[in-house]
Specification:
Elements lengths: L1 E2 L2 E2 L5 E6 L7 E3 L11 E6 L2 E6 L10 E6 L10 E6 L2 E7 L2 H11 L3 E5 L5 E2 L20 H6 L3 H4 L6 E2 L7 E5 H10 L15 E3 L11 E8 L2 E12 L6 E2 L4 E2 L7 H6 L13 E8 L13 E6 L9 E6 L5 H12 L24 E6 L9
Parallel strand pairs: 13-14
Antiparallel strand pairs: 1-2, 3-4, 3-10, 5-6, 6-7, 8-9, 9-10, 11-12, 13-19, 15-16, 15-20, 16-19, 17-18, 21-22
Length: 374
Amino acid sequence: MLTAEGFYLDRRFMLLKDNEETPRKLQNMHMPSFPSMCLFLTSIKDDTLTVTYQPPSGSSPLVDSIEIPLEPENFDNLEKIDVVMHQSPTTAFDMGEKYSRWFSERFGFKVVLAFWGGNPRPVLGNRPGKPATQGPKPKNGISNIINSLPVVGILLSDDEDNIAFNDVAPYLVISETSVADVTNRLPEGVEMDHTKFRGNIVLKGSDLAFEEDFWGELTFAGDGNEAGIVLTGNCGRCKVLNVDYNTGAAGKGPDGQVLKLLQKDRRVDRGMKYNPIFGRYGFTVRGDEGKVLRVGDRVAVKRNEERTVFCELMMLLSWSTRGWADLLSQTGQAFLPHRGRVSSRQYPSQDDMPTLLSYRILFRIRCHAPFISL
């Protein structure tokens, strides 16, 4: 079932490493830094999440599991912890010693299991219906002032999008045809494991590999039910693709070469010029929350004329008594790369600005490697 934050029950938990320092310091666990996370498999039945640990091939044959309630009782009474993923903050809940001990024993260091709890986490990447350079509305006491400022006011919107413990969007769409293309790059007899791309929607039927680069919106049709997902940005890949899922470590054979193979011709997003692109990020179309997607649904694709750009936006406004024309001449083109030139006459004159106003705003959007969570 679709929700505003993605599939129902998806990405509600995550793992953090407790560095056992005072004050307490928790580190987000991502597969690039903790590849053994791939040895933990998840399944859902009724209201329970089951996590099964499968030791690396050739080690202990012991396979064991732990059950976690998807809706922990009285979780508001749990210890609150601050979680920041890719500059996007939220408040989570420490699930406690029972779960911490189980994960810690298997990782070999102290681990915390965190529950999302429904607290909003702002989207800092490409947002549905917004330019690639537009981020979320800031939440602080000077929001109204910032919104009224030139350039910043244009880029910020009253509309808000939130996610749980996802990377930068609720959905990641990949195609079987593109996975087959990667298989063709590997030695004969070696098949690419599509689960390494971590897509939660896998489509088949594309005529060409990487055709999804130009997909803008998907409409799913089945049993008289239509539901939409708007695709907003590309997924830049990292060394997670090189992890050997049998050992929980970096692959030493063909498994360890996938990222390098894709870097040859898949660095197609100038906003992430060092990362090969594979797959598209997406959001539920407004109004389609509660609708259900099923395996086998037909999918209609709306195409973009050009690839979207998932760019990093660094905006730095510094002013005191200098004129807006000077500010614009230094920074205006960097702010609005897709909106064309903006005339300085659209901005207030120096005399219109408070003489004591002098501060800096740093606003950053960037795409990161996919975050792997339970």
